[in-house]
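Record type: monomer structure entry
Structure origin: computed from sequence
Chain ID: A
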Amino acid sequence: MSDPFQLLANAVINCWLANPGTVLKIEDPFGTVEAEKINMDVLSPVSGKILTINEDLLTARRGLSPINSDPYSSGWMATIKLSNPAELKTLYTPQYYAYLEAGKNWTGPVPPMH
């Protein structure tokens, strides 16, 4: 989850993640995040097998989830062993994602998408 999205959702109440060993196709749901303002499925960005999940997300108390406090680091959800490495080329670069989040506030050239 991105920082702007977690701000929109407000405090995370509960998180469920699929078990390690679960095989995913790109865009398969592998978890659910319940927050004060929204509930959402978490979709896999790539195809592969879940190796590990962030257990801290499953036991965090209301409003104290790492998803809220540090979504890009300690708020990680799962590590996935890729079954189709070519799918990495479909993901946005961090710079392009920042460009999308900035919207009209972006200054400078448009960064590469992939």
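Annotation 1: Residues 3-83 form a domain with the OB fold (Dihydrolipoamide Acetyltransferase, E2P) fold (CATH 2.40.50.100).
Annotation 2: The chain has a mean pLDDT of 91.
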